[in-house]
Amino acid sequence: MIQFTCPNCRAKLQAKPALAGHVRKCPKCAHAVRIVADPAADPNAAGGIPVDDALPDQHVLPPTEEHLPTHRPPERLNRESHYLICDKTHLVATWENNGNGWMIKSGSGFIPAKRNRDRLPTQGEFQLVELKFAMTPEGKRLVGIACHQLAPYWALTTLDQGDDPIVEKITGPGCLNRDQKASIRLVFKEQFMRPVWEQATEVLDYLASADYHSPGVG
User: Fold this and answer.
1) How far apart are CA 41 and CA 148, in angstroms?
2) pLDDT score, position 22
3) What span, in angstroms and rounded, lies between the C-alpha atoms of 6 and 49?
4) Residue 145 is assigned to a structural domain of this protein
5) ∠ CA 20-213-164, rounded to 5°
6) DSSP letters along the chain, please?
7) What pLDDT is attached to residue 47?
8) What is the pTM of this model?
9) Is residue 152 scored above 90 in pLDDT?
10) Has residue 77 been placed in a domain?
11) pLDDT given for residue 38 in this prediction
12) Residue 16 lies in a domain
């Protein structure tokens, strides 16, 4: 087995020799990690979590340099976009440029984060999802979607501090699993009129696909 260390969280990992040179998500922090071909290149590793046993929706694009993600996190939220935060399976928060700030999901609906700090989770695996819109002669239309991985600790505790502090918690490109994609499709139906999103073929195809590694389209 190849033994190596995640450069992000320092978790000790191991992989089968056949995966040398591939890129996989760290099973602990979800950071993209290239599997080191030579164990001597990482002398600190000993034993560890088997990355090759990860589920398919935890994998990222492998082998070639052109598939390595280049990620430029935003400096602030785009005021023309609508933002969602998902945990592993559900929608947990939303934002739009209406003056209400971040809204977190509760049993009775959405409530302001700034007045409910005690309900903000301190840790977890979260994706910040940007729904991109454009104004057309027919009105506001969905044109794209982008995902960002958030830090596993204290990221959501910034939601009561204002609109933009959450971008400082972005750690890299994100990806959506099947449950997260289903949650976002439900948001379309519940929060937007059908003409806003029904012609966004590329986005709808992405959300309906088994592509669980791409950070978005459009």
Assistant:
1) 30
2) 79
3) 10
4) yes
5) 120
6) -EEEE-TTT--EEEE-GGGTT-EEE-TTT--EEEPPS-GGG-TT--S-EEGGGS-GGG----SSGGGS------SS--TTSEEEEE-SSSEEEEE-SSSS--EEEETTEEEEGGG-GGGS-SB---EEEEEEEEEETTEEEEEEEEEEEEPSBSSGGGGGG-SSGGGGGEEEE----HHHHHHHHHHHHHHS-HHHHTT-HHHHHHHHSS--S--EE-
7) 54
8) 0.69
9) yes
10) no
11) 53
12) yes
My answer on whether 124 and 48 are in the same domain is no
Strand partners, 173: 148
- Percent of the chain residues topping a pLDDT of 70: 83
Length of the chain: 218
| Dihedral (Cα; 123, 99, 81, 158), 10-degree rounding | -20
Confidence bin at 57 (pLDDT 50/70/90): very low
Residues 30-55: pLDDT tens digits? 777 878 665 444 444 445 555 554 44
Q: Name which of 166, 150, 158, 164 is nearest 117 in CA terms.
A: 158
Tokens (6 digits) for 31:
């950071």
Kindly state whether residues 166 and 121 are assigned to the same domain.
yes
Alpha-carbon distance of 63 to 110, in angstroms, equals 42
Spatial contact of 23 and 54, defined as CB atoms under 8 Å apart: no
